[in-house]
Amino acid sequence: MPPRDPAHEPAPDAATDPAASDRPAKDAGGRGSLWLARFTRAERSIHHVTAALMLVCIVTAAFLYFPPLSTVMGRRELLKTVHVWCGFALPVPIVLGLASRAFRSDLRRLNRFAPHDWEWLRRSDRRAVRKGRGVLPVGKFNAGQKLNAAFTAGAILVMLGTGEVLTFPGPWPDRWRTGATFVHDWLFLTILVVTAGHLWEAFRDRGALTGMFTGRVDREWAARHHAGWVDAREAHGKAQVRPQEAEADGSSGEEDPEFAKRRPGMS
Amino acid sequence: MDEEERAEGSPVGRRLVLGMLGLGVAGVAVGASVQQKLSSALAPAGPIGDVLPAAGGFRYYTVTGSVKKRTPATWRMDVNGLVNAPRTFTMADLARLPQTVLDKDFQCVTGWRVPDVRWVGVALPDLLQAVGVSPAAKAVRFSSFDGTYTESLTLDQARRRDVLVATQMEGGPVSHDHGGPVRLYVAPMYGYKSLKWLGGIELTDKVRPGYWEHRGYDVDAWVGRSNGRDDAPT
Q1: Do residues B212 and B203 make contact, with C-beta atoms less than 8 angstroms apart?
Q2: DSSP B148
Q3: pLDDT tens digits for range A174-186
Q4: Strand partners of residue B201
Q5: Number of helical (H) and strand (E) elements in chain A, helices listed first
Q6: Consecutive H or E run containing B139
Q7: Fewest beta carbons less than 10 Å away: which of A1, A91, A204, B174?
């Protein structure tokens, strides 16, 4: 599954983050800012290629599917060909990406839900920041990102399977074909909603976008959004790096081990 | 990644992925009947059919770029080839021929079906009689005025009373998006045989496969007996 864009919150303002007002400018390379390596080049490539294929699939699907768009656009065969090729190509970057150690370890992070992830989902103040630090020890990915990654992986697999039945209907009985159409249709609408939500969350958080497009994030942003990740890195002696060094360091540390041992509801 | 992080928490992501796969398989298994119920439940909701999957109705397939509209006043249809009297028909000409009403399903080869659509028009055998079919003719070729879409029937198929040059659908004129002002409706066959935007009919000495048939669909597209399907015929 692709690593989804980090951090689902708006840039904090002075009201939620008292430290924000007196913090120096933290644009890329700004004086006094420290940067943490977040995504390797391989991980970013996997994300961007998957995202591009997914968007082409969604746009062609919309033209094939919504009657008002279909009738304006026409050219069904061309759209279908593009849709089918991009659809079957969707898992390729992910499978190739398994060669990357950093990607594999991020997949493990996305897979595992620690107690604070359940709490993140439950609490309405999950994104609150106190003294420049998120109130929950969120790891490298928050629970929303983990759910999004799992949903996207499952959706790609289900769309691949049902898409195969629709593209090569020959051997399949009628009921299966109709059933595959049913699943493909309704899951498309769900993917549309989830992807729109994902893009919405990503585009309103400049720090998260920076992480996905340059591979590194501002340490203060990380402390607000992924406090547990920052703690674990520092506990394991990963030095904060200046921008020019950030690219080289892809791996990173763990969640807070003490917190991790608690069961849900105990934290 | 170090060992302690690997052990942390439970593998919820994997369970979610497996759960979705299970739902997907279940959806394929029961989808046919669920979709049928949904379609009839959503049918009265009208424009929602533009957004939700086949909610009570048609899906629109267009093979070319956007099709230029023809009004009933500008519409013409040439009937030629192996006929005794080649002729160009207007809407008024069609209206003067005997009119046939059919209440029949419209079924797409991909599986969706719109039940009991009321079609009105000229039965194809009545039209063929008006131009006189030459004894050499064995098949009929249809073309649409969008310039791309073609279809064919054998002469025997074309002489069925449930094959219509349709001018009305569901109590009104056939809309542009549904292939109006005049489309073909071949009741016993899958939807792709019912050519939209009918603009020409040619009598030929043998069947010439049409647009979809060049793309792998059966030429004799009987509902329930072709394209690998065995659904109940309409």
Answers
A1: no
A2: S
A3: 788 888 988 999 9
A4: B79, B142
A5: 13, 4
A6: strand B139-144
A7: A204
Residue A188's closest chain B neighbor by CA?
A: B53
Judge residue A251's burial from the number of C-beta atoms within 10 Å of its C-beta, 0-12 exposed, 13-18 middle, 19 or more buried.
middle
Measured from the Cβ of residue B142, the count of other Cβ atoms closer than 10 Å reads 25
| pLDDT (tens digit per residue) in A82-134 | 999 999 999 999 999 999 999 999 999 999 999 999 999 999 999 899 998 99
Tokens 């993917």: give the residue. Answer: A191
Minimum-distance CB partner of A179 among B28, B54, B227:
B28
Q: Are B12 and A111 in contact (CB < 8 Å)?
A: yes
Identity of residue B120? V
- A150–B17 CB contact, under 8 Å: yes
Euclidean distance between CA atoms A216 and A199, whole angstroms: 19
Closest chain A CA to residue B176:
A71
Residue with tokens 């279809």: B151
In this complex, how many residue pairs, one in chain A and one in chain B, have their CB atoms less than 8 Å apart? Answer: 177
| β-bridge partners, B77 | B89
Q: Write down how long chain B is.
A: 234
Contact B165, B129 (CB under 8 A): no
Mutation site for A-interface testing, chosen from B17, B30, B42 by largest number of A Cβ within 10 Å: B17
Say which residues have a Cβ less than 8 Å from residue A31's Cβ, sequence separation at least 6: A24, A25
Whether residue A177 and residue B111 make contact (CB cut-off 8 A), yes or no, is yes
The Cα of A65 is separated from the nearest Cα of chain B by a number of Å equal to 8
| Interface check B61 vs A, CB under 8 A | yes
Tell if the CB–CB gap between A77 and B215 is shorter than 8 Å.
yes
Is residue B231 left, alpha or beta, with left meaning phi > 0 and alpha meaning psi from -120 to 50?
beta
ipTM here: 0.75
Interface of A with B in 10-49 (CB under 8 A): none
Distance from CA of B24 to the nearest CA of A (A): 6
Gap between the terminal Cα atoms of chain B: 61
- For the CA atoms of A241, A245, A246, A249, the dihedral, rounded to the nearest 10 degrees, stands at -100
What is the pTM for the complete model shown? Answer: 0.71
Which residue in chain B is spatially nearest to A155 when comparing CA positions? B20
Q: Three-state SS for B136?
A: coil
Distance CA A29, CA A210 (A): 12
- Residue B181: asked if its preceding bond is cis (omega within 30°), the reply is yes
Which of A70, A171, A185 has its CB closest to that of B62? A70
Q: Rounded CA gap, B149 and B64, in Å? A: 8
Confidence at B65, pLDDT banded by 50, 70, 90: low
